[in-house]
Amino acid sequence: MGLRSLFGFFSNDLAIDLGTANTLVYAKGRGIVVNEPSIVALDRNTKKVLAVGHAAKEMLGRTPADIVAVKPMKDGVIADFDMTEVMLKYFIRQACRRNHLLSPRIVIGIPSEITQVEKRAVQESAMRAKASEVYLVEQAMVAAIGAGMPITEACGNMIVDVGGGTTDIAVISLSGIVYSRSVRVAGNEMDEAIIQYIKRKHNLLIGERTAEWIKIQIGSADPIDKPLSVEVKGRNLIEGVPKTVTVSDQEIREALSDSIGIIVNAIKVALERTPPELSADIMDRGIVLTGGGALLRRLDKRIAAETGLPVFIAEDPLSSVVLGTSKMLTDFKLLRRICVH
What we know:
- By secondary structure, the protein is α+β, with helices and mostly antiparallel strands.
- It has 3 domains: 3-141 and 321-340, Nucleotidyltransferase, domain 5, CATH 3.30.420.40; 155-185 and 264-317, ATPase, nucleotide binding domain (Nucleotidyltransferase, domain 5); 187-255, Alpha-Beta Complex (Actin, Chain A, domain 4).
- The protein has helices at residues 3-10, 54-59, 81-95, 116-128, 139-146, 187-202, 208-218, 249-272, 276-285, 299-307, 320-327, 332-338, and strands at residues 14-18, 22-27, 31-37, 40-43, 49-52, 67-70, 73-74, 77-78, 105-110, 133-138, 157-162, 167-173, 176-183, 204-205, 229-236, 242-248, 287-290, 311-313, 339-340.
- Strands 3-2-1-9-10-19 form a 6-stranded mixed sheet, with helices on both faces.
- A hairpin with a 2-residue loop joins strand 12 (167-173) and strand 13 (176-183).
- The chain is flat and about 65 Å long.
- The relative contact order is 0.15.
């Protein structure tokens, strides 16, 4: 057994999709080992971390005054440096349970329009969370790889990755990004729009978790065949007491229309800026949708109607980024070509 294969045998390499809403970790040879909300709960007075991930999400909006649930990522980038480090440490430790003494090499997906400072923040967080080497790759690129698109060929591929904090749009050919754009409108922005709409229309105050639940239950980007409605519990703003109102899919569509409009416009701009040869390829191959937002009812139909192009949803949209990132763990040549400096 050579040194290389010995190293490979012990290797603890990880691929991380450090998302605004969820963080996924893929361990080489073991698959996805962590898939948890990007949330940390801590005691405000002692600054002690009480929970991370699922356990912390359960506390969201339900904590006593001295416990706060923090979302360290905002719009796809680090908003709270210390908490991101705590969260990464926790997830890395979970992923490396078996050989926790080794420092893993880590590949992390980041949004395309991220500043040098934000890049450094991601890198330093991972290094301080005990990584031996950190490589950054663009989310849209790895989402395309994870969705099984032929990105190494000389043809245009268009990917739209609707995440929690950002929607990343890219046109890729020959393992390179021909055009990329990241808009800070995605799942979280949609939840916020639902909160504001219900507040305005029904005088009802609801929390983030309820808004997300409504979006999943009855949210849609285009009219649906069978009308849907849900009962929503919240606090009445006028009387100050808990109340229940019934909300329809049409109302939620109205609440989401601005967010969806921004995403659709960004896709149109991307198509306008794509070189004509590649546009022809995209007309044949269509657009691939990934990310949690791809699960919003009829979003694919709406994009298809507005662009006139075929739109496909990736097989497992929620894990496209982490699966694409994981391919970098075995294909070092490709990693060198696409990693961000």
